[in-house]
Known about the structure:
Strands 3-2-1-20 form a 4-stranded mixed beta sheet. Strands 4-5-6 form a 3-stranded mixed beta sheet, with helices on one face. The chain has a 3-stranded mixed beta sheet with strand order 9-10-11. It is of the alpha/beta class. It is about 25% helix and about 25% strand. The chain has 11 helices and 20 strands. It has one domain (about 5-355): L-arginine/glycine Amidinotransferase, Chain A. The protein has helices at about 5, 40-55, 65-80, 100, 130-135, 135-145, 180, 195-205, 250-265, 315-325, 345-350, and strands at about 20-25, 60-65, 85-90, 105-110, 115-120, 150, 155, 155-160, 165-170, 175, 210-215, 230-235, 240-245, 275-280, 285, 290, 300, 305-310, 330-335, 350-355. Strand 18, helix 10 (about 315-325) and strand 19 (about 330-335) form a beta-alpha-beta unit.
Amino acid sequence: xxxxxxxxxxxxxxxxxxxxxxxxxxxxxxxxxxxxxxxxxxxxxxxxxxxxxxxxxxxxxxxxxxxxxxxxxxxxxxxxxxxxxxxxxxxxxxxxxxxxxxxxxxxxxxxxxxxxxxxxxxxxxxxxxxxxxxxxxxxxxxxxxxxxxxxxxxxxxxxxxxxxxxxxxxxxxxxxxxxxxxxxxxxxxxxxxxxxxxxxxxxxxxxxxxxxxxxxxxxxxxxxxxxxxxxxxxxxxxxxxxxxxxxxxxxxxxxxxxxxxxxxxxxxxxxxxxxxxxxxxxxxxxxxxxxxxxxxxxxxxxxxxxxxxxxxxxxxxxxxxxxxxxxxxxxxxxxxxxxxxxxxxxxxxxxxxxxxxxxxxxxxxxxxxx
Length: 370
């Protein structure tokens, strides 16, 4: 355990996504370059996402300015969202992928129940030049909420980690891909980082005792291997893993290799996870570019499980599989053909804030001044 790791202590852990939320964070879209030629449709997709999430929790929306807030309010009102469960935070951002740059919340019960923000760094997936505004959001969110901010450092250096790169069951097991976090050449987040080093960081800052390493991510994913496009926990012992049946598809071998890894994987208690195959939609392209269309990019909120759909025959099958696995809340499809042109969908846009015993689950803080 490093000195930096030891500073967290106190039993903080990252809860599973299906555990109760106080809120969901989402960044209102403003960067047209994320969806070139399709941006006009995107705020309306966000409106539907917010409407569904607000049925069971506060939605904390990051906006660029008072003007953007006013535009968002008008659209959300027309979309039928419960505005009493919407709170705005005026933070400058570069883009809108809140899963990756937003606050990664951890929680502990002792000595008192409280949440904190694990302060990982962000560098736009080691791929894009615009990231400095996004990188400041976690600390701003912690300050606005009045919760501790825990800078994540390893051997004196800030640690870069996106929320879409990890998947947890809340009991001690985390799933990630080697391609994303350990590749020494392509989109390197933390130069020189080893498997052992990452596992130490997960243990110290996320309360993880067991890591399952998969291989590569799916085709079209510009993050270079985010796990939330291919394998997700649906319960403490159950995961869904995308499966491509067509042997000529470039995802086929990658997903089969990950299935083989999971076949020998163990959970934190030594048991084997139950692996449920989740189909892939047919390859989806726009302007000749393949995009990472995947049903695994669903988001679990208090009121529902929101699942991206792609006008594909497998939409119905995927929704049916997830409905069998999430029996405590409805599974709802959200049309994502336009959304995925930004190389991400529902999970990539959202970040959960766990509920804490004794904390009032109200509409949230008022928007800070610009």
